[in-house]
Design goal:
mainly beta; 3-stranded antiparallel β-sheet; 3 strands
Amino acid sequence: QLRRYVYDPSHVVEMGKIQVKENLTYEKRSVLVIDYKLKELRSKSTGLVKILWDATTGETT
């Protein structure tokens, strides 16, 4: 059963400062290449890479 959220100021997570460029973009740098795989489909081959973007949160793509 779902319950209504009760706001609590201690639930707010403080984030570090992000440097934003004039066109409102920012550069996110990779931390580590976790995995690399070569996928072959018919006559084409494509490299697949799994990258760790943020070591503190463990965000990967």
